[in-house]
Each structure stands twice: as C-alpha cells, then as structure tokens.
Automatic annotation (TrEMBL):
Protein species of origin: Streptomyces amritsarensis
Stretch forming the signal peptide: none
Source superkingdom: Bacteria
Annotated ranges, domain Aminoglycoside phosphotransferase: 82-278
Protein's recorded name: Phosphotransferase family protein
Length: 363
C-alpha cells in the first residue's frame, strides 16, 4: 500500500512562526525563551499545531503545544476557525469532567502576532495512532499490539465518550448550538448542508453527497434523544496514549451540542474508513477492533443509554466526512497537486462505502 505525498496544508514557515512566537511570548512573560520549535509529523489538515518548550523560572508550563487557526492563504478546510470557542470548550471540559484534556493557557485573539488567532496549552507526552499510514495497516505500534492491548485501548476510549456525555452538564454546551430553527440535530444537519454549499460554491457538486442528504431525511429519527456536549472529532487519532491509556484528548474544533449518537456514529465510521481503505489494498486491517456492535454495547453498559438509529448516524458521519474529503481534494487541485475529474464523486476516497450506506447495503 503506497501513499501519495501529504496534501499541502499551509504556506507558513515554521522557523518564522517560531521567531514571531518568541516575540509574542516575551510580551506575555518577559524574559521567557522559546526553544525546540517544531511541527509534529501528524499536524492536522485544518488547524495547525506547533510544539515548543518554554525556558523561564516563573512558569510551571514548560512543554507546550500551540493551536493556530488555519492559514487563510491555504484554501482552508472550514470557512471559520473560532479559537476562543475551542479554548472555552477545553476549559469547560477540564472543569466539569475527569477527561484528560490538556490544560489551556494563553488565548490570543489578535491575528497580528502569528497571522491568525491561537491558543497555547500544555503538551502531553505519548503516542497517537497514525493516520498516514493508517493504524489499521502493518508497521505501527497499534497494529503490532496484542489483541488484549487493543481491547484495553478500545475500552478506555469508549469510556472517554461515555464520561464526557454523562459528566458534562448539557446546558453548559448550549452556546455551541448553531443559529436556526428546530432540534439540535436538525440544526446540526442544516449547518452541514450550509458547509457543503460553501465547499462546492462555484465548483462541481457531488451527486452522491446530495443523495446522502436525501437519504438522511428518509431515515430521520422519530426520537432524536437529548442533546449533550459532543467532542466532535471523536476518534482514536485524536487521543494521546501512554501505553494504551489515554493521557490527552485533543482536537475540539468540531465540538457540538447534539445527540450522543452523533459522536458515536463518528467514532464508528472513522474507524471503518481506515479499515475499509486497508482492506481495499489487500490487507486484513484490524477486523476485530472498534466494531460497531462492540462500541454500542459497551457504551450502553457504561451510560445506561442504548444507542439508537445508528444507521442514520453512521451514514451522517460518512456524509460529513465526504464533505471534508471533497474540500481537501479541491484544495489539492488549488495547489496543483491533483486534477479535478469529470466525476467529482471520485474525489471522495470512501465513495463506495458511502454509496452502499445510501443504498442500505453497507452493514
């Protein structure tokens, strides 16, 4: 299984960012020195992360990570990047739950110092299941683990979702509710429709994505259930593990006020995305890991809430992921890395599985 070069995500230079970061930090913490500035190999496809250390006698924060809003010159994945919102979510999760959320420190809303708003948080040490090559493929620590070790990681990760949904007071998340009318689920889906319209504005639309939206309406839950704080990008690739124990829950930019199943559907499908991709290249992947039935069963045992309408929610997750994939593909075209084909659906890496979900033949 070969991989294409990682798509371009920024026009920024890490060395220049480090210099400007040092000047900014000196204004906040006079005499502080920024050292060992680097970009992680797993830097995200949307917001950017910068790792660095601080040398100063008066701060307990030494190992740091900086979350920087997307480079506006790099054909951003999302139309807006609300760093104060992410900072607030992480602060509230740390306040109200026992999840290992990195301690957030400074928030800078002025785009002047680094070219975009950002915040600084404590850096967790550990390892993250890789996306490239995906952890379902041979040659990484999770694939090489024993079944017992992967079971432990799966159990601990499902527990993160259960504890977040149960411990966080739902009313504290209502500020995440998108403008509009209807239930939290209706508003969440409507916001995704608006996002899709932004992605294809002036470009070829995706007939498959539009069929998937129509299928959602046919499968619309009769009982949508109560809304809770959703992590948003709920997957093991956004967790730092010490051994097989979570020590940091990352990437809260997609946090939402929505039914529990929105998070669960994303967890189920994002693993299926990597598993299906691996199988398509002739490898077995990890067929016994993060299976839908196991996630649903264990979540119900931990919370007392039996997940419902999961065909709807896994389709919704695959649809949402398809919109992101289409935007990333159009960004690659913008930078001359790929050509746009006659059929835009072919730009969606998981178009076959999404089509099967629309047809009701996937599960």
């Amino acid at each position: 299984m070969a991989t294409a070069p990682r798509p371009r995500t920024s026009t920024r230079e890490p060395e220049e960012l480090g210099r400007r970061l040092g000047a900014w930090l000196d204004s906040r913490l006079p005499g502080a020195k920024v050292t060992d500035v680097r970009v992680p190999g797993s830097n995200g496809m949307s917001s950017e992360t910068l790792l660095f250390d601080i040398e100063h006698p008066d701060t307990p924060l030494r190992a740091c990570a900086l979350r920087l809003a997307a480079d506006p010159a790099a054909y951003t994945v999302f139309p807006t990047y609300d760093m104060p919102r992410q900072h607030r979510v992480m602060s509230l999760v740390a306040e109200h739950t026992d999840l290992p959320v990195p301690r957030v420190q400074w928030l800078e809303e002025d785009p002047g110092p680094l070219g975009a708003p950002f915040f600084v948080m404590a850096r967790a040490e550990g390892r993250v299941p890789p996306d490239v090559m995906p952890y379902t493929y041979e040659g990484n620590w999770l694939h090489a683990a024993t079944g017992t070790e992967r079971d432990a990681l799966q159990e601990a990760t499902i527990s993160l979702l259960a504890r977040l949904h149960d411990q966080f007071p739902a009313q504290e998340a209502e500020f995440l509710l998108p403008a509009g009318e209807g239930s939290p689920l209706r508003r969440h889906v409507d916001s995704q429709r608006a996002y899709y319209a932004w992605v294809v504005g002036g470009l070829a639309p995706s007939p498959l994505i539009e069929r998937a939206f129509a299928r959602l309406e046919e499968l619309w839950p009769a009982d949508k259930g109560p809304a809770v704080l959703n992590w948003g990008d709920a997957r093991i690739g956004n967790v730092v593990y010490d051994g097989f124990t979570p020590v940091a829950v990352l990437d809260w930019e997609m946090a939402a006020y929505a039914p529990r199943e929105v998070d669960l559907g994303w967890t189920v499908y994002l693993h299926r995305f990597f598993q299906d991709l691996t199988v398509s290249f002739g490898q077995p992947g990890l067929p016994d890991f993060l299976r839908r039935e196991d996630i649903e069963r264990r979540y119900a045992e931990l919370t007392g809430h039996t997940p419902r309408d999961m065909e709807f929610h896994t389709l919704y997750a695959a649809l949402r992921h398809a919109i992101v994939m289409l935007r990333i593909a159009y960004r690659q075209a913008h930078f001359g890395e790929v050509e746009v084909p006659a059929d835009p659906d072919s730009l969606i890496l998981h178009h076959a599985s999404l089509a099967a979900m629309v047809q009701g033949t996937y599960w």
